[in-house]
């Protein structure tokens, strides 16, 4: 039996794995940003990298794109989520919508972006559906939909992925605030459904999902893979330009990339500051609305809009996934035909070796990073249980810090630091970089079920002579099989979807399904994109299927253990 003789070390190791790469990466960004890069023959301090950044003609447009697309997509996602919850919580329609959205939470960002691109492109399914009978188009129209200079398609792609995440975070938080009693009290005072929900439930709910909302905001402002697929290219968003400079053969561009990474961090801090100001402004407006006494009975149009938006998000993900499947098997497919003339395995055979190699690398990295993360997470939770500790608000911020801090602020620095130290880049740095992002999701997924476990089971086992380690391995973990598998599936999905950590920590030498799929975006080979995108999605979704099937198989004679 595995023992934990030094159990208090687990929180220390977890903090080390979380903060170590962050601090090292920020330090590795700060030094070259001020001209100190010994590996490239530069010895600072110097402000030349910032002067070069200011001389770059695309700086203002790239900064504006990053700030505007990030804030707008986060605001739209939160608004759509609130509208769905306010209008439909507790109804059949809401349960149907929840069942539609839940499976797509595991879809990697790049795969979702490719799926949306297959829908909205000038030669995509939407254009084919209405052509030529309505549009008159016999060939794809010359319209700039994808990669538009305003970032509209980028915003749409981020909203499609952010809404399911915020919706499921909100559903989990609703159980903590006694929403039914609040709604009943508000509606008894004459308020309509939506206004009652916004007044009585949303403030308490938002307080509990504020950190996930900030994660969405900072991710949207600094995302790379979705921006490469859907965002503008001349100039691109600042995060994409940073990656381009980091990938340039001229090693001197790393100084410019480091300066831009610090500027990206400033933009994210500014975006969060604007968000906080918006919170105070909206709270003041809402207070005046409540004081005005309007009851908001005529809310049917808002309910319809909320359901329509939720359905649109669901259908976009579903049809995008179907698009990946069809393109991966498509033969000749002319416009405006709705389906290919024939289906073939030619694309799968052509990319068989490359895709299988990438799948193996993806599985290895995800398996190792999730295994380490699960050991650390279980060790931390068991330590807290035995020593009577509880996660504080400061601890929650620490857990969320790798998700809130933009990846472009520290990952380029981590790569630069490895170069300065003469250390190679490859699979091990990639695993450690993935662990930084896997650990928070494992903790957040497992903490609730771990705390909810009936400790009377431990009392009975202890009375029978079981030691704490025996209680953990023979009682608690088997009973929590379903939550453990679900947390593992979440960790695998997070690892599979990591693009920038794999690209930078691996130095371009580690090829996973995500890096290969995003690399194909510039080539325009939709069949190859379909193959890699579908494999990427399957790699992320298969663990969730196993997490549902295995407990049902193992505990088929013990129904009380199926849900942990």
Topology, please?
Blueprint: H1 9-33, H2 48-55, H3 59-88, H4 92-101, H5 109-120, H6 125-129, H7 152-174, H8 179-188, H9 193-200, H10 202-222, H11 225-230, H12 238-246, H13 253-292, H14 300-329, H15 346-350, H16 352-387, H17 393-404, H18 407-420, H19 427-452, H20 456-463, H21 468-479, H22 481-496, H23 500-505, H24 513-519, H25 526-554
Helix pairs in contact: 1-13, 1-16, 1-18, 1-19, 2-13, 3-7, 3-9, 3-10, 3-13, 3-14, 4-14, 5-7, 5-14, 5-25, 7-10, 7-14, 8-9, 10-13, 10-17, 12-13, 13-18, 14-25, 16-19, 16-22, 16-25, 17-19, 19-22, 20-21, 22-25, 24-25
* Radius of gyration, CA atoms, in whole angstroms: 25 Å
Helix content: over 70%
Any idea what the shape is? Answer: globular
* Biggest beta sheet summary: none
CATH architecture of the largest domain: Orthogonal Bundle
Average pLDDT across residues? 88
CATH topology of the largest domain: MetI-like fold
- Compute the number of helices: 25
Strand content: under 5%
What is the CATH C level class of the largest domain, in words? Mainly Alpha
The sequence of SSEs as H and E is: HHHHHHHHHHHHHHHHHHHHHHHHH
How many extended strands? 0
CATH superfamily of the largest domain: MetI-like
Quaternary status: single chain
As for the number of domains, it is: 2
The low-pLDDT segments are: none
Cα(first) to Cα(last) distance is 22 Å
- Find the structural class using helix and strand composition: mainly alpha
Domain ABC transmembrane type-1: 59-274, 359-554
Pfam family, one: BPD_transp_1
Family: Belongs to the binding-protein-dependent transport system permease family.
Transmembrane segments: 65-89, 110-130, 150-174, 211-231, 251-278, 304-330, 363-383, 395-415, 421-442, 480-500, 529-555
């Amino acid at each position: 039996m595995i023992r934990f003789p030094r159990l208090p070390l687990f929180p220390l190791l977890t903090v080390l794995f979380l903060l170590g790469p962050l601090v090292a990466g920020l330090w590795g960004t700060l030094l070259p940003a001020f001209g100190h890069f010994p590996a490239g023959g530069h010895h600072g301090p110097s402000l030349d990298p910032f002067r070069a950044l200011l001389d770059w003609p695309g700086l203002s447009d790239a900064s504006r794109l990053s700030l505007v697309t990030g804030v707008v997509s986060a605001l739209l996602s939160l608004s759509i989520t609130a509208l769905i919850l306010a209008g439909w919580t507790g109804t059949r329609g809401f349960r149907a919508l929840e069942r539609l959205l839940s499976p797509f939470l595991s879809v990697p960002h790049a795969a979702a972006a490719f799926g949306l691109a297959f829908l909205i492109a000038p030669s995509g399914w939407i254009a084919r559906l209405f052509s030529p009978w309505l549009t008159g188009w016999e060939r794809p129209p010359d319209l700039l939909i994808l990669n538009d200079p305003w970032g509209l398609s980028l915003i749409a792609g981020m909203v499609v992925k952010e809404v399911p995440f915020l919706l499921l975070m909100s559903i989990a938080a609703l159980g903590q605030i006694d929403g039914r009693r609040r709604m009943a009290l508000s509606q008894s005072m004459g308020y309509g459904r939506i206004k009652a929900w916004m007044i009585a439930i949303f403030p308490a709910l938002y307080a509990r999902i504020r950190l996930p909302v900030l994660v969405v905001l900072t991710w949207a402002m600094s995302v790379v893979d979705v921006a490469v697929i859907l965002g503008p290219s001349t100039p691109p968003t600042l995060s994409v330009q940073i990656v381009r400079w980091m990938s340039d053969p001229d090693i001197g561009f790393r100084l410019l990339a480091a300066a831009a990474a610090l500027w990206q961090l400033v933009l994210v801090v500014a975006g969060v500051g604007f968000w906080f100001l918006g919170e105070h402004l909206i709270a003041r407006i809402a207070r005046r609305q409540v004081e005005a006494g309007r009851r908001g009975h005529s809310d049917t149009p808002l309910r319809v809009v909320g359901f329509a938006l939720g359905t649109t998000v669901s259908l976009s993900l579903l049809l995008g996934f179907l698009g990946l499947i069809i393109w991966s098997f498509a033969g000749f497919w002319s416009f405006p035909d709705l389906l290919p003339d024939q289906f073939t395995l030619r694309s799968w055979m052509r990319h068989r070796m490359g895709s299988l190699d990438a799948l193996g690398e993806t599985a290895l990295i995800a398996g190792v990073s999730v295994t380490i993360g699960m050991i650390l997470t279980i060790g931390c939770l068991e330590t807290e249980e035995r020593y009577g500790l509880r996660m504080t608000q400061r601890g929650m911020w620490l857990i969320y810090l790798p998700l809130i801090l933009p990846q472009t602020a520290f990952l380029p620095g981590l790569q630069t630091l490895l170069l300065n130290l003469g250390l190679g880049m490859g699979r091990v740095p990639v695993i450690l970089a993935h662990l930084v992002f896997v650990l928070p999701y494992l903790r957040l997924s497992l903490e609730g079920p771990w705390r909810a476990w009936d400790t009377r089971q431990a009392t009975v086992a202890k009375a029978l002579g079981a030691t704490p380690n025996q209680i953990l391995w023979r009682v608690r973990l088997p009973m929590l099989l379903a939550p453990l598998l679900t947390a593992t599936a979440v960790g695998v999905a997070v690892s599979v979807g990591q693009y920038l950590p794999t690209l930078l920590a691996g130095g371009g030498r580690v090829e996973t399904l995500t890096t290969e799929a995003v690399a194909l975006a510039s080539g325009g080979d939709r069949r190859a994109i379909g193959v890699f995108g579908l494999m990427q999605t399957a790699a992320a979704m298969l663990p969730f299927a196993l997490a549902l099937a295995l407990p049902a198989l193992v505990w088929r004679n013990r129904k009380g253990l199926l849900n942990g």
